[in-house]
Specification:
The chain has helices spanning about 10-40, 55-70, 90-95, 110, 115-130, 145-150, 155-165, 180-185; strands spanning about 45-50, 75-80, 100, 140-145, 170-175, 190. Strands 3-2-4-5-1-6 form a six-stranded parallel β-sheet, sandwiched between helices. The model has no long low-confidence stretch (mean pLDDT about 90). The protein is an alpha/beta fold and about 210 residues long.
C-alpha cells in the first residue's frame, strides 16, 4: 500500500486504538512522576558521589559547580591528586569567585614519595574541613577525594565526621574511583561511571580543552 493511498476503516481503527493505548500509558507515567514530585518535599544538603572506572566523573562534578554558580550560589573546590598542569574548569570558575584548593603533587606514582603525598593530602584535607564548616558555602566539590581514603592518606572517620557535621543545606560532591563503602552508605545519591571504550587505550593522548 503506497503512502498516498487512503487508509481503510480497519486501519484507521487500529491507529485510533494505538493512540488511545499510548495516551493511557503516558497518563500512567505522568501520574507516577507527579506522585514522586509531590512526595519529594524535603530540602537538605545533598551528598553526591560520582565513582566508577569510567571517564567523566570530575567533569560531571564541575558541571554541578557551574550550574550552582549560574544560579548565584557560592561554591568551592578542593582538587586532590591533580598536579599543577592547566585546568580549564579552574581557569573559568576562579574568574567568577569559586575558591580553589589544589593538592598539587600529581599522581602518587609520579611523586613516589608517600610522606610527601601524605603531607600534601592532609594540607588539602584541612582546607576541605574548613570549607565543610563554612555556612556561607552552598556547594563544595571534593574532586578525587576517594583516592586519599583508599591510600590511607586521610583517615576515613575524619572524612565521615566532617561530612556528617557540615551545614545542613550544604551540598557536597565527591568524585573518584573505588569510593569507600561507608561514604557510599552516607551519600544521598551515588552514580557509577563505567568504561565502554577509552581513547587513551587506543594510543590517543590526553588533549587540552577536552581531557583537562
Amino acid at each position: 500500500m503506497s503512502s498516498d493511498q487512503p487508509k481503510t476503516d480497519s486501519q484507521l481503527e487500529r491507529d485510533k486504538v494505538k493512540a488511545q493505548r499510548h495516551k493511557a500509558r503516558q497518563q500512567k507515567v505522568k501520574a507516577e512522576v507527579d506522585a514522586k514530585i509531590a512526595k519529594a518535599q524535603t530540602e537538605k544538603g545533598v551528598l553526591l558521589v560520582l565513582t566508577g572506572n569510567g571517564k567523566g566523573k570530575s567533569t560531571a562534578g564541575f558541571g554541578n559547580i557551574t550550574r550552582a554558580v549560574g544560579h548565584g550560589k557560592k561554591a568551592a573546590v578542593v582538587q586532590f591528586i591533580k598536579g599543577n598542569w592547566p585546568c580549564g574548569e579552574r581557569a573559568v570558575l576562579e574568574q567568577v569567585g569559586v575558591e580553589f584548593h589544589v593538592m598539587g603533587t600529581g599522581f602518587t606514582w609520579e611523586t613516589q614519595d608517600r610522606e610527601k603525598d601524605t603531607q600534601a593530602a592532609m594540607g588539602a584535607w584541612q582546607a576541605a574541613e574548613a570549607l565543610l564548616s563554612d555556612e556561607t558555602l552552598d556547594i563544595v566539590l571534593l574532586d578525587e577525594l576517594t583516592y586519599m581514603v583508599t591510600y590511607n592518606y586521610i583517615d576515613l572517620e575524619r572524612v565521615l565526621t566532617a561530612l556528617r557535621n557540615r551545614p545542613p543545606m550544604q551540598h557536597v560532591i565527591i568524585t573518584g574511583r573505588a569510593c569507600h563503602r561507608e561514604i557510599i552508605a552516607l551519600a544521598d545519591t551515588v552514580s557509577e561511571v563505567q568504561p565502554i571504550k577509552h581513547a587513551f587505550e587506543a594510543g590517543v593522548k590526553a588533549q587540552i580543552g577536552f581531557d583537562y
